[in-house]
Amino acid sequence: MSVSWIHRTAAEQAEALAAGTVTSVELVRAHLDQIGATDEGENGINAFLHVDADGALAQAKASDERRAAGNPLHELDGVPIAIKDVLTTKGLPTTAGSKMLEGWLPPYDGTVTAKIKAAGLPILGKTNMDEFAMGSSTENSAYGPTRNPWDHTRIPGGSGGGSAAAVGAFQAPLAIGSDTGGSIRQPGAMTGTVGVKPTYGSVSRYGVIALANSLDQLGPVTRTVLDAALLQELIGGHDPKDSTSVPQQVSGLVEAARAGAAGDLGGLRVGVVKELQGDAWAPGVVERFDESVEVLKKLGADVIEVSLPSFVHAMAAYYLILPAECSSNLAKFDAMRYGLRVTPDGSPSAEDVMKASRDAGFGDEVKRRIIIGTYALSSGYYDAYYGQAQKIRTLIIEDFKKAFGQVDVLVSPTAPTTAFPIGEKVDDPLSMYLQDLATIPANLAGVPGISIPSGVSSEDGLPTGIQFLAPVLEDARLYRVGAALEAALTQAWGGPIAPAAYKEKN
Amino acid sequence: MTETLIDFDEVIEKFDPAMGLEVHVELNTNTKMFCGCPTEFGAPPNTQVCPTCLGLPGAMPVVNAKAVESAIRIGLALNCEIAEWCRFARKNYFYPDMPKNFQTSQYDEPIAFEGYLDVEVEGETYRIEIERAHMEEDTGKATHVGGATGRIHGADHSLIDYNRAGIPLIEIVTKPILNTGDKAPLVARAYVSALRDLIKALGVSDVRMDQGSMRCDVNLSLAPKGKPVLGTRSETKNVNSLRSVERAVRFEMSRHAGILLGGGSVLQETRHFHEADGTTSSGREKSDAEDYRYFPEPDLVPVAPSREWVEELRATLPEPPAERRARLQADWGYTDLEMRDAVNADAIDLIEETVAAGAAPQAARKWWLSEISRRANEAGVDLASAGVTPGEVAEVQKLIDDGTLNDKLARQVFDGLFAGEGTPGEIIEKRGLALVSDDGPLLAAIDEALAAQPDIADKIRGGNHKAGGAIVGAVMKTTRGQADAARVQQLILERLS
Amino acid sequence: MPELSRDEVRHLADLARIDLSDAELDHLAPQLNVILESVASIQGVAGDDVVPTSHPIPMTNVFREDVVVPGLTPAEALAAAPEQEDDKFSVPRILGDEQ
Q1: A49: helix, coil or strand?
Q2: A339 in the Ramachandran plot: left (φ > 0), alpha (ψ -120 to 50) or beta?
C-alpha cells in the first residue's frame, strides 16, 4: 500500500528519507502533483505565485545522490519547502505580491534562502501574499487572493496566506513566512496550521523585502510544532549581513518540542492576557480557547490572568510605525533601476515616470499606508505620531517585562474571528486591521510568538488558533507548551484537524 | 535677468556678512560606508555595486568600522566632542542618483559636535566654530545627455553610474561665521584651506577639490551693518577650488547687497557657481525647510564609541599643520617672510626632507626657492615634480661644503640632474665639474698668470692684496671655473711672500 | 485632531511620488481619515519621561571590517533596468518643465 507522502509531517518525511523508504524526488513529485491538482484554475487555491518544478526536481535528485553517498547536508535534506514571495531567491521571480516587481529576478539569495539551499531542501516555489506584506487576508495580492483550503470562498489570512494555505492543503510540508504584525500567526489560525514568529533579530532579514524593519521577522509555517522547531533551528542564527541580527543563537527548540510532547507542563506559569478578551472576539474562537486553557491546567500548568494595559494602544502605535517605515522602504520602487516602469505620453520627466509607475504598480492598501507614513513623519507631526508611537512601544515592552516577571508564557486566542468570506472586509481597512489585535504587541516588543490550532469553531466549523508569547530569546518555551497542548488536543480529536477536501483518504 | 552687483567696499560699508560653510569630505576607505564594494576612482560604470548600494529590495546596510574611526579622528582634530551614543537617520527625498530614495545620514545625533578651527588671515586669528561633523553616504553619478552643455538643463535623459553611491562622506558644518567684515572671502578661503590641510594630515581623504573628494557649499547672508540679525541666506554649490570659495563669497555679497539695496528680498535658494566668470546662477529653489522626514535608520543600531577607543584615536592624531609650521620655523631660524615664502611655494615638506638629509636650513631654502623654483616654473611643473629630490639637493650642498663644488659649478650639476644624467657624483665626473683640489695645477696656473701680469705681482707684494683679484680671475679662466677662489687667493699670497 | 483635506492628501501623494487620480483621491481620503482618527488615540498617552524605542532588542556598535567583498557584475546590476545605455541606467530627463 503506497504511503500518501504529502500527508506526512516534515519530520516523518525526513525519517523516511534517512531510512531509505522514500526518495526526495518522490517527495517532490508528490507535492508537485498536489500543487498541480489543487492550485490552479477555478477551483484552485492560488497559493503559489511561481512553481519551480525543474529546479525542485534537480535539487531533489542532488539530495538523493548525497544521501546515497552518505552525505546528507542536514536532517531536513531533501524535504520540500515553499517560500513566501517576500524573500529573495536568486533566479526565481520574487514579487512581494506586487505588480511593481512582476517578473523581477533577484541577483542574490537572501540569507535564509541560502541556508535552506545549504541544507539541501528542494524549493517548490514562491507563495502568494498580500502586496508588500500589507494585509490580513491575502486579498491585497496583485495576483489574486489565495483561497482557504477549508472553504474556498474564504480568505486564508494574511499577509502570508499563500504559505499557510499551501501547508494546510498539503502542497508542501514546510513553508517560510514573514510576520510583521501577525502575518504568520493569523494565517496559521485561519487555516489550522502552526505558525511561529521568532524573537526579533534571531532570524536574518537580509533578503527580506522590508515592510517595517523594526517589526519584520521570517518564521516557520508548518502543520506540527516539531516541524516548526526543526525549521526554525535551520533558518535562525546570527548574520553579519543584518546589523539588527542578535548575536545569540536561539536554541533548544527541537529538544523543547520533543520534551513538551510528553505532556508534562508542571511548573509552567501561564498568563491569560486580560486585554485580549471581550466583544471583539467571536464566541466560537473563545470557546475553543477556553477549552485549551483548561487542557493546559490539566497538563499541570498554573494559569492566572495578567494585565498588559498598554496593549489597548498597540494597534494605533503599529499603524503609525509601520506606515512610517514602509513609506521610506518603498521609496526605492521608482522605476529607475528595476520594477514596473510606466511612461506617460509626451516627454515625461523622471518625476512624471516615477509618479505614474508608482500609481500603477502599487495597490490601494500600499498607497494608504505610504500616505499615512509620509504624514506621520512630516515635520510638525513627527512627535505627535511617529514619536508617540515609539513611546507606546516602550510602554508595551515594559508591560511585557512586568508580565513575564509573574508568568513564563502569555496566552490568548490568535485572531478575533475565524476565516471570513473573500471580499467582506476589503473596503473596510479598520475592520481588517482588527484582525491583528492579538498578534501586533509581540512585533512591537520583539518577543516570540506561536499559533497552534485550537480546534474548529462550533459556529462555523472553521479552524481557530491559540497564541503563546514568551520573553525575548525564550522561544524554546513556546515549543514546549505548544507541543504539549498539540499532543493533548490531537489526541482528543483523534488526529490533527484538516480541511475535509484535502484530508488523507483512508 | 540682469543683477545689480554692488561694489565690495560699499557692501562692507552697509552690511555685515554671515557665512556658513558645509564641507563634504570623501573618505579614502577601501570600501563603501555600508557595504563591501570597492571605492576605486575611475572604474568602469556599475562595476563597483552590490545589492546594498544599489538599493535592491531586501538588501541591508552594515557600517564600515574604518569610516567610523575616520569620522572620530576628524572630529577630534577639529576639537569636537565625540558622541557617547549616536544613530544614523534616513533623509528621505527622491532623486534618480539615490538608489533608495533616502540617504542614510545622521540627523540630530551626529558623531562629533561643538568644535573649532583657528585660521589666520593677514596676521589675525579667526576661530571658526564647528557645529557638527557627521557620517553619511554619497550618491551615484548622473551624466546628462542631449542638453547643450552636458548639463542638466535641456537634457533629454540621464545616465546613472552607481559606483559612487555609498562611498563614505563626512559632512562638516560650521556655525554661522560672523564678524569677519571685509575679510569674509579670505576667511572662508582660509578655513577651507586649513580644513583641507588638517584632513590631509590625518590621511583619511585625498581632499582634492578638483576631483570631488572635498566639496564645499558656501552659505551667505547679509545683515544691515550693526544689526544682530541673520539675513536670508543663499547656498552656492559647485565650488571646486579654494579660489572659487573666495570668489563665491565675494560675488554673493555683491549680489545680495544689490537686491537688498534695491528694496528686494533675497531668495532662499541653491545656486550654482561658474568657474569661468566667478558668478552664480539660480539652481533649485530650496523650499523653506525641505521636509526630509528624518527618522532613525531602523536597519542599523546605534554607534556608541567607548571613551577608551576615542582616546586611542586621539593619540593617533598628527601634529596640527599650524603647530608644525611654527615648530619648523623656530628650528630652521627662518624669518616670518622666509617662512611665508616657503609655505606659499609649497616647499615646506621638501625643505624638511632636505634638512633631514643633512643640509643646513638656509641652504635648503636657497636651492628650493630660487634655483629649483626657477626651473620648475620654466618647465611648468610644481616643485615636487621638478626633477630633483631632497636627497640630491642635500648631496649637492654637501659637495659645496666640502669644497668639491662652488655655487657656479653646483648650478651645472643641477642642470645635469634636471636632464636626468645621473647622480651628482656621476654628473661631476661625466662633465668634469669638480673643483681642482690639488694645489699643483693651481700653482701652475698662478705662476702663469703672474708671469703675464708682473705689475700685479708688484702691487700685491706692496700690500695691495685686493689686486690679486685679477690673478684669481685669470686662474678661474684657465681652470674653467673649477678653482676655489679663496684657495687661489691664499696660494697667491703664499707665492709672493 | 486635524482631518486631511483632499488637497493635503494630494500633497502627501506628491511627496511620495504617487500620481493619484481624482477617483483614487475621492476613494482614499475618507479611508485615511478614519484610520488617522483611530490612531489619534495615542496622543498624550506616553509622558515626556518615556524614552522612544526604535529597536526592540537594544544593541550597539555592529560594524564590519574595511575589506572588499565581491559584488554584482554590471550585467547583474542592469539585468532588470527598464532602460540602459553604455552599462549605465538610463532615466528620463531629471528636471521638470518648470526648471
Answers
A1: strand
A2: left
User: Could you tell me the CA-to-CA distances from B168 to B24, B25, B30, B58 in Å, in that order?
Assistant: 10, 8, 10, 21
Q: Which of B30, B50, B145 is the closest to C67 by Cβ?
A: B30
Reported as a single tens digit per residue, the pLDDT across A464-491 is 999 999 999 999 999 999 999 999 999 9
Question: Which range has the worst mean pLDDT, A29-33, A160-164, B235-239, B383-387?
Answer: B383-387
Backbone Cα Rg of chain A? 21
Higher pLDDT, B256 or B481: B256
What is the structure's pLDDT at B285?
A: 55
A298 catalytic, yes or no?
A: no
Mean pLDDT computed over B136-163: 88
Which phi and psi (to 5°) does residue B32 adopt?
Answer: -70, 175
Q: What's the pLDDT band for A175 if we cut at 50, 70, 90?
A: very high
Which of A37, A218, A44, A221 lies closest to A144 in space, CA to CA?
Answer: A44
Contacts of B56 in chain A (CB under 8 A): 88, 106-108, 338
What is the maximum alpha-carbon separation in chain B?
Answer: 103
Helix then strand then coil, in percent of chain C rounded to 5, is 35, 10, 55
Query: CA A181, CA A321: separation in Å to the nearest integer?
Result: 11
The pLDDT of A126-153, averaged and rounded, is: 98
The string of pLDDT tens digits covering residues C37-80 is 888 888 889 989 999 987 888 899 999 999 999 999 999 999 99
Which of B288, B299, B303 best tests the A interface by mutation, with the highest count of A CBs <10 A? B299
Structure ipTM over 0.90, yes or no:
yes
Does C57 reach chain B within 8 Å, measured CB to CB?
Answer: no
Size of interface A-C (CB pairs under 8 A): 177
The answer to whether the CB atoms of B62 and A241 lie below 8 A apart is: yes
User: Percent of chain B scored above 90 by pLDDT?
Assistant: 66
Interface membership of B284 toward A (CB under 8 Å): no
Chains touching A, CB cut-off 8 Å, 3+ pairs: B, C
pLDDT in tens, B317-344: 998 777 888 999 999 999 999 998 898 7
- B301 lies within 8 A of chain A by CB: yes
Average pLDDT over residues B172-192: 96
Q: Which of C15, C55, C72, C83 to mutate to test the interface with B (most CBs of B within 10 A)?
A: C72
State the pLDDT at residue C97: 39
Please state the pTM of the whole predicted model.
0.88
* pLDDT surpasses 80 at B437: no
pLDDT in tens, A99-109: 999 999 999 99
DSSP A496: -
C59 interaction partners in chain B (CB closer than 8 Å) = 301
DSSP bridge partners of A177 = A219
